[in-house]
Amino acid sequence: MAQLWGGRFTKETDQSVYAFNASIGFDRRLIREDIEGSLAHADMLGKQGILTREERDAITDGLKGILRDVENGSLTVDDGYEDVHSFVEAVLTERIHETGKKLHTGRSRNDQVALDMKLYTRRQIVLTARLLEDLLWTILHTMEENLETWMPGFTHLQKAQPVTLAHHYGAYFEMFRRDRQRMTDLYRRMNYCPLGAGALAGTTYPLDREYVAEKLGFAGPTQNSMDSVSDRDYLIEFVSALSILMMHLSRFSEEIILWNSNEYQFVEMDDGYSTGSSIMPQKKNPDIAELVRGKTGRVYGALTSLLVTMKGLPLAYNKDLQEDKEVSFDAFDTAQDCLRLFTGMLRTLQFRKDRMAQSALNGFSNATDAADYLVGKGVPFRDAHEIVGRLVLYCIDQNTTIDQLPLEQMQRISDRFEQDIYDALSLKTCVEKRLTTGGPGPGAMKQALQAYRAWLEDAGREVFPGVEEDGRK
Predict the structure, then answer these.
(1) 255: Cβ–Cβ under 8 A, 6 or more apart, which residues?
(2) What residues have CB less than 8 Å from 115, skipping those under 6 apart?
(3) Residue 158's CB: how many other CB atoms inside 10 A?
(4) What's the CA gap between 334 and 347, in Å, rounded?
(5) SS3 content of the chain, % helix, strand, coil (to 5)
(6) Which residues of 89-109 are buried (b: 16+ CB within 10 A; e: fewer)?
(7) What are phi and psi of 276, to 5 degrees?
(8) What residues does each domain of the chain span?
(9) What is the pLDDT of residues 62-111, one digit of tens each?
(10) Is 156 a catalytic residue?
(11) Using one digit for the tens of pLDDT, what is the confidence trace for 284-309?
(12) How far out from the chain centre does Cα 155 lie?
């Protein structure tokens, strides 16, 4: 197979070297972006008089025909070519003959592949943003339905204070909202067009880079041609954002795994998102949550790989940069698959509300409220803390809970306890008294839900320039 660069060489490349050098096996997924970029480039060449109108039209029709044939399955990307760029150019030349060879005027594979990766990454950012919105809506709906679903809040994996399921889920809403915001931030930062940078020093042809950038939906052209072809910051930033997203998914997965265990029994997994055991018939395993937790390391690995690849590269383009694709593609696919499946799993969870409430009581999560009660009766907090600690110690010895103790027993430890202590210790009272912004009380939670819904509706209406949102994978 003839290479795009063969004129300088006097003999064929060794086949093992050719195979090692080739990228067609993984960059074939860039064919849509390669043709979109080439269409814009050809249009600009025609506008600038570098191509005749007839040449531009022939190239445009040829490129559109290749894309149509690939998408309908009548044309298959041939692994015999070095990369997707050489495949497109070879097929184009085969179909429109010598005119096809003029497409590459004023362009290098360096700025061509930089453009392809940016176009592709833009689509993946938007897809990830929309998948995050699906997850956030799922979380929000669960919150709205569980404002009075009492459960223990934890520190150090020990029961601490009572909260609601809505409040607990709200912590993850905040995490995933930040993940969604990162998609917007990095999209704006990376949305500049490298086409026209050439190999590293631009070109002598009178290209109109602003025209191409606008046609492809970029904010403008990149401002330094050397950086344009050697920059992979946007990939590192996206995979870094995916790594943070996966960390959040992994934390949530760990909670679902714990809640699904026999010891907690807070949730019942849907059969569609669980598996059984080949030997133990009683088992119902949270495999999706476990796989999401496990695949987090895979995305971390992609980020590390990109950082290590880039850390020692001098300007400008180096072949090492070809290593950006496989790990990035895998990180994109992994994070998006995890988002889809985790959202489906979350949407089908059933909650054992009685079990959650009883767990909050059994763990003395209302002990702080007992201390606050004594403070309200005039006892200094430090003394109240000690009194309730003695009360808890007695309950542990008697295998009971504070709210089940007779008033007489409480008064043996402190005469400040009165009949109203039982109302003060109820989970409902413990939660509803926490009215500060960000707390689990109903007033604070309703304000948060209203703000979350408004923000999420705005996020869903956000327009990402240059990307047609043509469905989700």
Answers:
(1) none
(2) 33, 37, 193, 194, 195, 216
(3) 10
(4) 20
(5) 65, 5, 30
(6) bbbbbebbeebbebbeebbbb
(7) -110, -170
(8) 6-105, 110-150+163-206+221-352
(9) 999 999 999 999 999 988 899 999 999 999 999 999 999 999 999 999 99
(10) yes
(11) 899 999 999 999 999 999 999 999 99
(12) 26
Region 180-190: mean pLDDT is 98
Side chain identity at residue 364, one-letter code: F
Query: What does pLDDT average to over the chain?
Result: 93
Topology annotation, domain 110-150+163-206+221-352: Fumarase C; Chain A, domain 2 (1.20.200)
Query: Residue 310 is which amino acid?
Result: M
Which range has the worst mean pLDDT, 14-23, 173-182, 428-437? 14-23
Catalytic pick from 156, 168, 228, 305? 156
- Choosing from 277, 328, 385, 426, which is the catalytic residue? 277
Please say whether the beta carbons of 125 and 464 come within 8 A: yes
> Burial, 114: exposed, middle or buried (Cβ in 10 Å; 0-12, 13-18, 19+)?
buried
| 366 in Cβ contact with 162 (< 8 Å) | yes
Is 277 designated active site? Answer: yes
Q: Specify the length of the chain in residues.
A: 473
CA 149 to chain centre: 28
**What pTM value is reported for the model?**
0.92
What kind of architecture, by CATH, is found in domain 6-105? Orthogonal Bundle (1.10)
H/E segment holding residue 235: helix 233-260
How many helices (H) and strands (E) the chain has is answered by: 19, 4
**176-180 contacts, C-beta under 8 A, 24 or more apart:** 176/132, 176/135, 176/136, 176/139, 176/245, 176/248, 177/136, 177/452, 177/455, 179/132, 179/241, 179/244, 179/245, 179/248, 180/129, 180/132, 180/133, 180/136, 180/459
Distance CA 253, CA 232 (A): 31
Q: What is the rounded CA–CA span in Å between residue 108 and residue 30? A: 16
